[in-house]
């Protein structure tokens, strides 16, 4: 890459270390992932950004179906009375709910809720569909949009409308439902690790941080480049709470009427924000190959010379046949300009092909995850070489992110130490008594929250780091998005 061109191009985005929030905003706009919608807090996901979501959706959908789930779709509009049936649920969502009160000039007899989540309408259907133990389990997932009227918004991370999937299952027993809850949490963890190259912390949320209406909430928490945590997905054990509110009963084998036990779980377009903030650098996006819309871009060098365009077109066909998402950039722009643009857009592999390369029977290759590294690969068997290279990049990006996460987990055995760890842009791993007052103290003092309690509860101390009382749980504190 021409250093002067690179320097000038990077001027278009803020410094990642000096102004991370502005860097993030610049990246999502200038790489054409999104544009702002006309309504406050909404975003238009542009084709390049939607391409990432399509890859996320395809990979997750495959995993859901492999675990026995099927897709369905439920209405966007929900009767307001449904939301009122589960008291804790309505209290949790009331501040964010958008209501439809009129159609034209006519006032509706009953207000309608614009879907913030679908537990209520799905539960109403389950009460009709589930009659016998033979109808269980019900394993349904929905790909949809939801609306939550957020006060403070940021593209992908927190928007008024966003895309997601929400799984909703019903089971005969508590044991089956709890097993489902953890199974889907593990599906999310594996997906983040193997597809997004993003390590996450798994564990149970505190009661104060759990989903409104759930018995227990489990989450995956990721570490961003600026030291903040991002809740990347959740899985909830709902118990019988919604079943009792919506009268979802079944006739068991013993002839007794019983309530079902339920779960719900979901991830959103927030995952795209996570990818940006975990892997991005001073040059812009750096996309893991398995989720990148374009895995390799081919740039003709001196395309006006004989054989260059033809060779590049053959490369495209070869790579496409191998299942690689490849793009040929034949625009009339300088090579340096193209190098910089595709670097900013995070394409994992750049392939340069010019007369000298062709004469030598090679192409020149650059890895996006390793700045400035260029090498040649033989044109013969280029498909195999690029596939292997993409696998290496995917693995290396995960290792780098995992090392970053591991280095940012620090034990903190006092309130003072929690503050010191948070100021170092790390997760504070502490012992906690279980009292929400201690959670609030940390929140008020340090603007941090509990993230989750790891499944490995081997204690690091016997005292609560905040009140010095008897500790019950090991838990992560962090400043978060």
Protein architecture, described:
- Helix content is 36%, strand content 26%.
- With 481 residues, it is an alpha+beta fold.
- It has 15 helices and 24 strands.
- Helix 1 (3-10) packs across helix 11 (335-344).
- It folds into 3 domains: 16-279, Bira Bifunctional Protein, Domain 2 (BirA Bifunctional Protein, domain 2, 2-Layer Sandwich); 296-390, Rossmann fold; 409-478, 2-Layer Sandwich (Translation Initiation Factor IF3), CATH 3.30.110.30.
- It starts with a helix and ends with a strand.
- Strands 3-7-8-14-11-10-9-23 form an 8-stranded mixed beta sheet, with helices on both faces. It has a 5-stranded mixed beta sheet with strand order 16-15-17-18-19, with helices on both faces.
- Counting H and I runs of at least 4 residues, what is the number of helices? 15
Q: Determine the CATH superfamily of the largest domain.
A: Bira Bifunctional Protein, Domain 2
Given the helix and strand composition, which structural class is it? alpha+beta
Oligomeric status? single chain
What is the fold named in CATH at topology level of the largest domain? BirA Bifunctional Protein, domain 2
Beta-strand level of the residues, as a percent range? 25-35%
The global form is globular
Arithmetic mean of pLDDT: 95
Q: How many independent structural domains? A: 3
Q: What is the end-to-end distance?
A: 35 Å
CATH class of the largest domain: Alpha Beta
The biggest sheet, with number of strands, parallel, antiparallel or mixed sense and barrel status, is: 8 strands, mixed
CATH architecture level-2 label of the largest domain: 2-Layer Sandwich
Question: Which bin fits the share of residues in helices?
Answer: 25-40%
Strands side by side in the biggest sheet: 3-7-8-14-11-10-9-23
């Amino acid at each position: 890459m021409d250093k002067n061109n690179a320097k000038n191009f990077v001027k278009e985005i803020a410094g990642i270390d000096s102004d991370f929030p502005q860097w993030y905003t610049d990246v999502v706009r200038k790489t054409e992932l999104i544009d702002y919608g006309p309504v406050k807090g909404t975003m238009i996901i542009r084709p390049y950004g939607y391409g990432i979501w399509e890859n996320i959706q395809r990979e997750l959908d495959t995993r859901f179906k492999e675990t026995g789930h099927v897709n369905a779709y439920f209405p966007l509009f929900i009767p307001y009375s449904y939301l009122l049936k589960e008291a804790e649920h309505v209290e949790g969502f009331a501040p964010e709910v958008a209501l439809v009160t009129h159609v034209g000039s006519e006032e509706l007899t009953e207000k309608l809720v614009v879907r913030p989540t679908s537990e209520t309408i799905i539960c109403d259907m389950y009460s009709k569909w589930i009659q016998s133990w033979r109808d269980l389990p019900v394993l349904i997932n929905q790909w949809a949009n939801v609306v939550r009227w957020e006060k403070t918004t940021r593209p992908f991370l927190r928007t008024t409308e966003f895309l997601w999937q929400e799984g909703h299952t019903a089971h005969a027993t508590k044991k089956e439902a709890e097993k489902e809850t953890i199974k889907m949490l593990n599906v999310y963890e594996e997906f983040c690790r193997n597809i997004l190259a993003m390590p996450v912390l798994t564990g149970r949320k505190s009661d104060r941080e759990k989903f409104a209406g759930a018995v227990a909430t489990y989450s995956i928490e990721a570490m961003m480049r600026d030291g903040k945590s991002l809740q990347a997905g959740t899985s909830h054990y709902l118990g019988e709470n919604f079943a009792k509110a919506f009268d979802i009963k079944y006739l068991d084998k013993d002839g007794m009427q019983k309530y079902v036990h339920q779960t719900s779980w979901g991830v959103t377009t927030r995952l795209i924000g996570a990818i940006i903030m975990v892997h991005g650098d001073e040059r812009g996006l750096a996309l893991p190959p398995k989720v990148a819309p374009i895995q390799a871009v081919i740039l003709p060098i001196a395309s006006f010379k004989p054989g260059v365009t033809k060779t590049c077109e053959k490369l495209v066909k070869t790579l496409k046949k191998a299942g690689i998402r490849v793009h040929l950039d034949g625009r009339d722009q300088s090579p340096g300009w193209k190098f910089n643009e595709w670097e900013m857009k995070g394409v994992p592999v750049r392939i340069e092909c010019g007369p000298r390369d062709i004469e030598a029977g090679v192409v020149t290759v650059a890895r996006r995850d390793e700045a400035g590294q260029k090498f040649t690969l033989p044109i013969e068997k280029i498909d195999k070489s690029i596939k292997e290279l993409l696998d290496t990049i995917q693995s290396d990006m995960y290792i780098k992110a995992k090392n970053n996460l591991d280095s940012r987990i620090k034990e903190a055995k006092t309130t003072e130490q929690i503050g010191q760890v948070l100021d170092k842009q790390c997760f504070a791993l502490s012992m906690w008594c279980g009292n929400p007052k201690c959670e609030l103290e940390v929140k008020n003092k340090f603007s941090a929250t509990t993230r989750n309690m790891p499944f490995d509860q081997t204690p690091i101390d016997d005292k609560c780091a905040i009140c010095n009382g008897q500790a019950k749980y090991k838990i992560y504190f962090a400043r978060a998005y």
